[in-house]
Amino acid sequence: MAAPKVKQDMAPPGGYGPIDYKRNLPRRGLSGYSLFALGIGSLLIGYYTLIKWNRERRRLLIEDLEARIAVMPLLQAESDRRTLRLMRQNLDEEAKIMKDVPGWKVGESLFHTDRWVPPTLDELYYLRPASEMDNEKFGLQYYV
Which residue, of 5, 64, 109, 119, is most buried by count of CB atoms within 10 Å of its CB? Predict the structure, then answer.
């Protein structure tokens, strides 16, 4: 028996067309120069807003300082009144305690000067409970 005649698969006449083997990537996004320009532009805008905000902060700081300077005499007067009130209470208490001691002068200064010497916290609060002096020294630091 004779082998059946097989038709071999051949290329078409004239051959196959060219094969695309190179990369064909579409352009995506902006070019490098435009990205560089965008970066420089955003930096300039950021520096502009930073400079503007620093000027505003400086203006607000000057305003706060001027307000503090304006209020300072009032705060100093309140502090002086509190100091004088405590000193008067201390002198009254000292007079009550030392009334039986002969030759004791109430309120006699320890300093040999006529100049005003502001009292220390210990001098102001020595006849008061220790908690008051601690509150005056440390204030709200206990809560931190």
Answer: 119
H/E element holding 81?
helix 32-97
Structure tokens at 143: 């809560």
- 123: closest CA among 104, 141, 136, 138? 136
CB 96 within 8 A of CB 134: no
The string of pLDDT tens digits covering residues 42-87 is 999 999 999 999 999 999 999 999 999 999 999 999 999 999 999 9
Tokens 């020595």 belong to: 126
- For residue 136, the surrounding DSSP H or E stretch is helix 130-138
Contact 121, 86 (CB under 8 A): no
At residue 3, φ and ψ (nearest 5 deg) are: -65, 140
As a whole-number percent, the residues of the chain with pLDDT over 90 amount to: 48
Mean per-residue pLDDT of the chain: 89
pTM: 0.56
DSSP symbol at 143? G
